[in-house]
Specification:
about 180 residues, mainly beta, five-stranded mixed β-barrel, 2 helices, about 10% helix, disordered C terminus, NA-bd_OB-fold, single-stranded DNA binding
């Protein structure tokens, strides 16, 4: 089952850019989503808990995210949710990851200027000009969310730490831990 979520929050880390083993570009960043509520006793808005997400944006979306996003930007991210447990240096926790399908600035808090980019790479040639449904189906079919690799390339990612995006076999979700 694939759960699609939309999260409104702030970019918490500068986006980092790398490539999968198959050469597909990927951009990673952390997203903080702090819920606010109105406190009747003080008649003021207060911050409640903050949820933390690790976001991965692949291919052209990743390239555009790297060029467009900065720490502190208010954004809206839509993508596939993945919850995984982790263990490192004797510590255990749960990470909530989003494989991004769309990212945009939250225009409630500022303005942005959109600059359309052409799809000039050979890997995009098969989907250029196709309907959005065909492009989405093509992207879904040629990407393995478990390994972060293209369907035709099942090697590990050599220079990019995507350990946060991989769940150990048989792992069960536990309570969320911010890192």
């Amino acid at each position: 089952m694939i759960d699609t979520v939309t999260i409104v929050g702030r970019v918490a880390t500068d986006p980092t850019h790398g490539q999968t083993g198959g050469g597909a570009p990927v951009t990673n960043f952390r997203l903080a989503s702090t819920h606010r509520r109105f406190d009747n006793a003080t008649q003021a808005w207060i911050d409640a808990d903050t949820n933390w997400f690790s976001v991965a944006a692949f291919r052209q979306l990743g390239e555009h995210a790297k060029a467009s996003l900065r720490t502190g930007d208010s954004v809206i991210v839509t993508g596939r949710l993945r919850i995984r447990t982790w263990e490192s240096n004797g510590k255990q926790g749960t990470s909530v990851d989003i494989i991004a399908e769309a990212i945009g600035h939250d225009l409630r808090w500022g303005t942005t200027a959109f600059l359309a980019r052409s799809r000039a790479t050979p890997s995009d040639a098969g989907t250029h000009g196709a309907t959005p449904e065909a492009r989405s189906a093509d992207q879904e079919n040629d990407f393995d969310t478990d390994t972060g690799a293209d369907a035709d390339d099942h090697r590990e990612l050599p220079d990019l730490d995507l350990s946060w995006a991989e769940a150990p076999a048989g792992a069960a979700a536990t309570s969320a831990t911010a890192h």
